Amino acid sequence: MNIEQEAKKYRQDVEKEFIKELNTAFAETERYILKSLHNSDERESSLRRLEEAKSWCVLCKDRHGVR
């Protein structure tokens, strides 16, 4: 395997790990919100904003990459 292939595989592995950790963090936060807050419009808004934040993170990863 040449250096370019190794670099590409490394970047793919880093991105997979990023997505895995991101999903874990957001899932835990979502569970915490659902467990802690009463069913309300504000709670639903919080969950929508959480999903929006996750989407922005993925967009940033796609556009700029992961450190």
Would you tell me the structural class of the helices and strands?
Answer: mainly alpha
* Cα-atom radius of gyration: 16 Å
Strand content: under 5%
What are the segments in which pLDDT stays under 50 over at least 5 consecutive residues? none
Measured as a percent range, the helix fraction is over 70%
**What is the count of helical runs?**
2
Distance between the termini: 23 Å
The biggest sheet, with number of strands, parallel, antiparallel or mixed sense and barrel status, is: none
Order of helices and strands: HH
- Given the C-alpha coordinates, what overall shape results? elongated
Count the beta strands: 0
Mean pLDDT: 96
Describe the structure in your own words.
This protein is mainly alpha-helical and 67 residues long. The protein is 87% helix and 0% strand. The protein is built from two helices and no strands. The chain has helices at residues 3-36, 41-64. Helix 1 (3-36) runs antiparallel to helix 2. The longest helix is centred in the N-terminal third of the chain and has 34 residues, at 3-36. It is elongated, with a radius of gyration of 16 Å. 0% of the residues are buried.
